[in-house]
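[Meeting: bench + compute handoff]

Bench side (C.D.) handed over the final construct sequence. Compute side (W.E.) agreed to return the predicted structure before the next meeting so the bench team could plan truncations. Sequence as handed over:
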Amino acid sequence: MNSRERLLAALDLKMADRVPVSTYSLGAGTGHSFEYSDPSYARLVRVIREKTDRLFEWSPSSNHRFLHSAHPVEIDETTRREDDATVTERTVRTPKGDLHQVVKVVDDIHTVWQTEHLCKTIEDVEKALSVPYEPVAYDGTGLHETEAELGDGGILVDDASDALCSVAPLMEFGDYTVWAMTEREHFQKTLDRVHERIMENLRRQLDVCVLPLYRSCGSEYATPPYLPPELFERYVVPYAKDIVELIHSRGAKVRIHCHGKMGRVLDMIAATGVDGIDPCEPPPDGDVELAEVKKRVGDRLCLFGNIELKLLERGTPDDVEAEVKRSMDAAKPGGGYVLLPTSIPYGSPLSEKTEENYLRYIDAALKYGKY
């Protein structure tokens, strides 16, 4: 079987010739990510492209401007250097007043931190929502070239995240949880308003192109201990169901991305009708072992996971191989499993230790994944 067939079989809960092995988005795309221009990643990227089953992230271009709207809004931006970091300050000028945000990127760490969130109060949230909604337009130019580049080496994946993924990060995390717990009606009404935008935009996006798989983020903001299960059911489940139903109606599949402790909400996730879940973190970062996830929902969901990135960065090659075997033993039987790390490395340069562990991870997956 080729990689495309292998991944689609796993999503259909079937056994292929072997368990698909992925490195998440690392080395799986078109060359726009940082690892393609970093010489320390060159060998690993080559091996990933030669030996793994690629989850190739691609999105159509769009005229999105702010909070799922294409409506013109003035955003003033200044950038400065602070020690070893680039700091960007943004002022969003909404109809109800200005919002201020600060983000920081540390040199050689390829991720972004919000050091000041846009919203500090409910009044700020209303300012953000005062920007009128204008549906986003999408352009699928480049899809056919991307499909040709990937060939049968994997499948294309895009994001279809829920309202919580946009609403929760408006505030600092502690403020968000207080808002969600103590102002439940306002919080849900905010989700409803953002969800309407998301659904209309998703319809328009799917009219332009439909990919085999969509990843939906956001649910991890509402897992225990951050929020109780009854609020997960309220803030996640109905919105995820709508997204899943729409994507299914276009013939594609959805996997939910949910880090952390999902044991008490796992059945709720399955009840959304979703096709898969990642990254199935093992304890102590998660709270349910992979074998238990397989037992509880493996007949309904394709499981993606559950090799911890910290193991790939800090463990020994023998540790990595042992964990790959353990994961295979837990989730391989009967099909419906994709071996996957919980994240990707963000630092440059890539350490020799991490490279060696990734190479062992791939070789062990090919060794223990055969049916």
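W.E. noted at the follow-up: The first helix runs from residue 3 to 11. C.D. will use this when planning the next construct.
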